[in-house]
Amino acid sequence: MRNWLAKLILYGIMAAIVISIIGCKQRGETVATVLPRVDVVVKKVTLGTIRDKIRVTGRTSALRQETFRAPIAGKTVSFQFVEGDQLPRGQTVMVLRSREAQAVLDGARELVEEAGTPEQKREAERALQLAQKDVQDIDLRARFNSILVNRKVNEGEYVVEGQELFTLIDPQSLVFFADVPVQLLRKVKVGQKADIRFFGISDGIAYGIVRLIEPRLDPLAESARVRIDFTSLPSSVKAEMFGEAVITVGTCQNVLLAPLSAILKNEETGTVSVMKIDVDQASERGPDTIGVLQPVTLGVVEDSVAQVSGRGIGEGIFVAVRGHYGIPDSTRVRVVKE
Which residue from 24, 179, 237, 318 has the least number of CB within 10 angstroms? Predict the structure, then answer.
């Protein structure tokens, strides 16, 4: 009897709880749930200046250079320099001897070696001396202070008339030709500054100025050549070296700047946003709050900052720079120190 009475009381309590919950739902009341909290680091949107830059690839070239070809068929009697050697103006780079003169000398030397008596040897040596006096070698000299590049032959080799031997370039005439995509060409102007880094070189950076924008001879070409003259150049830079030029094509002043790490890009929709955080500006640290995704228009990007604009974005606004990736709009967040 007592067990039956206890069960009846328990069932009554449970029924009352169920009825109470149903009644609350019918009156539009909901049971509160605890939302997850995400820790974020924030920084301010500031007002400042940013430089508009484009990055393009290209390579160095010498405006002044000379390629030497053999004026006659003959033998390279002397060629002791290697690629990269710096040669002063007037320096003899190569000595070339005609095939006929070389044949006479070779014959005279053979007579000396084959002489059987002292008298024959004296006669052969006199003949060799006469042959050496009659030889008129051709000296190929540098016409300007230069660097040897593209060495094609070695000392002692025979060459034919017109064969390419070597090339000299004037290091003072080195320039950088950048290949600028057509869609960016309208931004480039003569006189703009450029920083140039070369692939495989770590001993510095070159500086230059845009000097010439070459006309597009082919209307279907996807890029145009832009010549950058160097104002400062590391000694290790040579001709035909590939690199990347960063050309400053403009400056934007008094614009809103957000840390680049605050920018959120939606690849599917193509939209850009930041997560706006309501923070106590006095301490830059506030209580738990809500992170709101704020659409923005992205402008110029330079290094670690980006130009932004849009409704609800202004100087002094706090945006999340860490911890905000992948979380939905209106997420409960807590601001923490970096």
Answer: 24
Q: CA 75, CA 155: separation in Å to the nearest integer?
A: 8
Instruction: Tell whether 244 and 263 lie within a shared domain.
Output: no
Question: Is 226 exposed, middle or buried (CB count within 10 Å of its CB: 0-12, 13-18, 19+)?
Answer: buried
pTM: 0.66
Domain endpoint, select from 169, 197, 215:
169
We report the CATH number of the domain holding residue 164 as 2.40.50.100
Q: What order of strands is seen across the sheet that includes strand 86-87?
A: 65-69, 164-169, 146-149, 86-87
Same domain (yes/no): 9, 92: no
Angle among Cα 113, 117, 119 to the nearest 5 degrees reads 100
Query: In this predicted model, what pLDDT tens digit does every residue of 48-103 receive, in sequence order?
Result: 999 999 999 999 999 999 999 999 998 998 999 998 899 999 999 999 988 877 77
Q: How far is CA 210 from CA 195, 205, 228, 247, 292, in A?
A: 11, 16, 4, 8, 44
- Phi, psi dihedrals of residue 5, rounded to the nearest 5°: -70, -40
Same domain as 243, residue 165:
no
Q: Are residues 190 and 221 in the same domain?
A: yes
Range of the domain at 22: 1-31
Q: What percentage of the chain exceeds 90 in pLDDT? A: 54
Q: Are residues 246 and 312 in the same domain?
A: no
258: pLDDT strictly greater than 80: yes
**Each residue of 41-54: pLDDT tens digit?**
999 999 999 999 99
